[in-house]
Amino acid sequence: MPFLGQDWRSPGWSWIKTEDGWKRCESWSRDLDRENNPCNVSHSIILNSDDEEIFSNEEQKYTSKKRKKDHFRNDTNTQCFYREKWIYVHKESTRERHGYCTLGEAFNRLDFSSAIQDIRRFTYVVKLLQLIAKSQLTSLSGVAQKNYFNILDKIVQKVLDDHQNPRLIKDLLQDLSSTLCILIRGVGKSVLVGNINIWICRLETILRWQQQLQNLQVTKQVNDGLTLSDLPLHMLNNILYRFSDGWDIVTLGQVTPTLSVLSEDRQLWKRLCQYHFAEQQFCRHLILSEKGHVEWKLMYFALQKHYPPREQYGDTLHFCRHCSILFWKDCRLALLFKDSGHPCTAADPDSCFMPVSPQHFIDLFKF
Q1: Where does the record locate the signal sequence feature (predicted)?
Q2: 258 contacts 233 by C-beta, under 8 angstroms
Q3: Exposure pattern of 83-99 as b/e (b: 16+ CB <10 Å)?
Q4: C-alpha–C-alpha distance, residues 291 and 267, integer Å
Q5: Pair 242, 216: CB distance under 8 Å
Q6: pLDDT higher than 70, residue 53
Q7: More exposed terminus of the chain, fewer Cβ within 10 Å: N or C?
Q8: At 288, is the secondary structure helix, strand, or coil?
């Protein structure tokens, strides 16, 4: 059965009214205009039944292919998500609402594209994308999967530009490439949305991103002012104690010899183990030196393999238990205008809010 669009005369074509009647016109793309016309003069070609015979079959095929390529290029760069600060999470149909909210719908509607520009929310979004890549990628709809890769593209370009948090993105891309390799090889072909060639292109894009991050070199900015090496030892030690990730401490210790000595402090790694793991956990995996001292640094990385570390984020999504609404809470607006971030009907809204971790976000949409 042929497809009939809104314009029954010829779906996809534009019509203009002239003295001789209605005629069909085709607007050529701007890219094609630049190639054919160096003056970049925009024009349109009016086609009627007599003019169509002028074009040969080969030219018509070229025009059709060019139009399809332009449409595909524009379509891939288009992001099909909303910019909403909150959504209602409903898991069943009611008299007021039909259907239910899925993980893909929440991913499309919540404003993750702007969240990655906020340094407080960047780590949260990256961790959420990593969890989706590990287990929930095939549960997303086609539009949600497209938005997933669009947001991932923005994250990679941001890291390449500002040189911040490259290790987080490397881990994310590694998990995503492993998942796609398993799916493309045949385990999950039946659950992949779209042509298999699209996924192969996405995998090639991920491999290209990994190569770009591998070749990333952080340039040292020359500054005549105060540098990190000029700070006193107690301030440098205080900076190290602010880190919650052991890999960040190891990386910072490679900057100067002084920081290398401070990063090997046993008390620093002991507090890090106590922060992330319970006492019963690290008591089961004690690593002692030849002198009988506890090797806290080795214990930290050994415990990471057995237990998940404690997650810490500058800002997260919040869930209102009273309204069943998932939302981004803007702390600045909350202080200035007493805005909770969503239309809450509770008498004491703050008592109903609870932060949502990335894993909890995914669990909200498991039925």
Answers
A1: none
A2: yes
A3: eebbbebeeeeeeeeee
A4: 17
A5: no
A6: no
A7: N
A8: strand
Q: What type of residue sits at position 82?
A: Y
Torsion angles phi and psi, residue 317, rounded to 5: -70, 155
DSSP 17-63: EETTEEEEEEEPPHHHHHHH-TT----EEEE-TTGGGTS-HHHHHHH
- CA angle 286-288-289, nearest 5°? 160
Of residues 318, 326, 322, 321, the one with CA closest to residue 345 = 322
Residue 259 C-alpha from the chain's centroid: 33
pLDDT at position 195 is: 79
Question: Three-state SS for 82?
Answer: coil
**Quick one: pLDDT at residue 267?**
92
Angle at 117 between CA 334 and CA 223, to 5 degrees: 110
Sign of the CA dihedral 228, 232, 233, 237? negative
What φ, ψ does residue 176 adopt, rounded to 5°? -70, -40
Pairwise CA distance, residues 1 & 132, whole Å = 38
Length of the chain measured in residues: 367
3-state secondary structure of 224: coil
The answer to whether 285 and 306 have CB atoms below 8 angstroms apart is yes
The token pair at 335 is 């202080």
Other beta carbons within 10 angstroms of residue 110's beta carbon come to 23
Provide, rounded to the nearest whole percent, the portion of the chain with pLDDT above 70: 71
Produce one character per residue of 317-334: b if its CB has 16 or more CB atoms within 10 Å, e if not: bbbbeebebbbbbbeeee
Torsion of CA 222, 223, 226, 232, to 10 degrees: 0
pLDDT at 104 over 90: no
Written as six digits, the tokens of 30 are 């701007």
Give me the pLDDT at residue 123, please.
92
Q: Residue 134 pLDDT > 60, yes or no?
A: yes
Chain mean pLDDT for the chain: 76
* pTM of the predicted structure, to 2 decimals: 0.70
